[in-house]
């Protein structure tokens, strides 16, 4: 449709995306190219994305990732997907992106976990060379489905890349189906990651009844929380969990459309953004999986503003705060903040009347 003034404001707003899973972020256009490369798989776009108005269960969402993984299974695929995703975030006005992905080995295409990560790093470097206007960093994901042994291996891989990637690899993400495996078993791997200097972004209380696990993981503590949907007492969490998060000022990555479409939140207006934002807690709007959930970060800011009645200044503060919550080293944070300051007048001030 036609772009309105409001659309333009959110597109031009400089943004930092801190919670984006690579294979969940594949756009319709890229998906078409992947499907054309592998016609024998008989995959249709409806099997990899939830269009507007539709909802799925969390389980169905994890099924979708399996389908996407069939389409993205070679070095060539990963290079293309990463470059496309980076370019799309840049086009959406994202100036800083922390991309995350689970290293995968694929016997069929001879892909190893090391090559998987190297290929993503190569794609990030190529995007920089092509002068795509965005700074990208990488978080290595641990899929809890694969258990503690693989988690420990993944941490070692992340440590190696942290030291050899010129600062592109900054941390570790714990994700995957929250119904599978107890997060407690991940503790040794997560502790090791933390001690070696990897930042920790952990999916936490994404589903109900994970109080004990969340309590244990919050004691690490993580550097950021993904979702945290069921932490607060109004939805079955507890004051002690909220206290831990607030006292340690652990930023929360909030993904509105993702949580509505995978039905962990009943509707946009009941999203826990409100709970944390009203407390003045650091909240970061993110997309989670812009491909699967058919959204982009501009749209997520626009939705949050309209549903929670945020004015342009409040929206600006939110995107500015995201830089502070990032894992970027201090000099890069300062550089990004200068960028935000330069752009502020043209984004916030209306053009003079003719
Ligand atoms: P990948 O790590 O790049 O392959 O991205 C897809 C993976 O991200 C999935 O297989 C999950 O492990 C993880 N993921 C994506 N969205 C979610 C979510 O909402 N909750 C938990 N894990 C997720
Ligand atoms: Zn996620």
From TrEMBL:
Keyword annotations of the record: Hydrolase, Metal-binding, Nucleotide metabolism, Zinc
CDD domains assigned: ADA_AMPD (cd00443)
GO molecular function, one term: adenosine deaminase activity
UniProt-listed SUPFAM superfamilies: Metallo-dependent hydrolases
Catalytic activity: N(6)-methyl-AMP + H2O + H(+) = IMP + methylamine
GO biological process per UniProt: adenosine catabolic process; inosine biosynthetic process; nucleotide metabolic process
Cofactor(s) the protein requires to work: Zn(2+)
Tagged with keyword Metal-binding: yes
Domain called Adenosine deaminase: residue spans: 14-337
Subunit and interaction comment: Monomer.
Family membership noted in the UniProt record: Belongs to the metallo-dependent hydrolases superfamily. Adenosine and AMP deaminases family.
Listed name of the protein: Adenosine deaminase domain-containing protein
Source organism per UniProt: Electrophorus electricus (Electric eel)
Source species taxonomy: Eukaryota, Metazoa, Chordata, Craniata, Vertebrata
């Amino acid at each position: 449709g036609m772009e309105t003034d409001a659309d333009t404001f959110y597109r031009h707003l400089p943004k930092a995306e801190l919670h984006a899973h690579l294979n969940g972020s594949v756009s319709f256009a890229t998906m078409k190219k992947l499907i054309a490369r592998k016609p024998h798989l008989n995959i249709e776009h409806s099997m990899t994305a939830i269009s507007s108005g539709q909802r799925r269960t969390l389980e169905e969402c994890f099924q979708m990732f399996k389908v996407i993984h069939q389409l993205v299974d070679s070095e060539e695929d990963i290079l293309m997907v990463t470059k496309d995703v980076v370019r799309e975030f840049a086009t959406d006005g994202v100036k800083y992106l922390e991309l995350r992905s689970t290293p995968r080995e694929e016997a069929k295409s001879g892909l190893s976990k090391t090559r998987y990560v190297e290929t993503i790093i190569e794609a990030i470097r190529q995007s920089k060379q092509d002068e795509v206007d965005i700074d990208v960093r990488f978080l290595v994901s641990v899929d809890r489905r694969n258990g503690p042994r693989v988690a420990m291996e993944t941490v070692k891989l992340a440590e190696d890349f942290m030291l050899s990637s010129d600062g592109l690899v900054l941390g570790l993400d714990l994700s995957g189906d929250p119904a599978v495996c107890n997060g407690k078993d991940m503790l040794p791997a997560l502790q090791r990651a933390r001690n070696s200097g990897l930042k920790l972004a952990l999916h936490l209380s994404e589903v109900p009844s994970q109080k004990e696990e969340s309590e244990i993981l919050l004691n690490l503590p993580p550097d950021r929380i993904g979702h945290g949907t069921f932490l607060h007492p109004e939805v079955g969490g507890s004051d002690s969990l909220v206290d831990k998060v607030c006292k340690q000022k652990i930023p929360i990555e909030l993904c509105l459309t993702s949580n509505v479409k995978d039905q962990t939140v009943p509707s946009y207006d009941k999203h826990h953004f409100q709970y944390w934002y009203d407390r003045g807690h650091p909240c970061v709007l993110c997309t989670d999986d812009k491909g699967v959930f058919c959204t982009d970060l501009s749209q997520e800011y626009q939705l949050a503003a309209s549903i929670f009645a945020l004015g342009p200044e409040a929206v600006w503060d939110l995107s500015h705060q995201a830089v502070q919550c990032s894992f970027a080293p201090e000099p890069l944070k300062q550089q990004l903040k200068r960028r935000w300051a330069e752009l502020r007048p043209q984004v916030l001030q209306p053009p003079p009347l003719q």
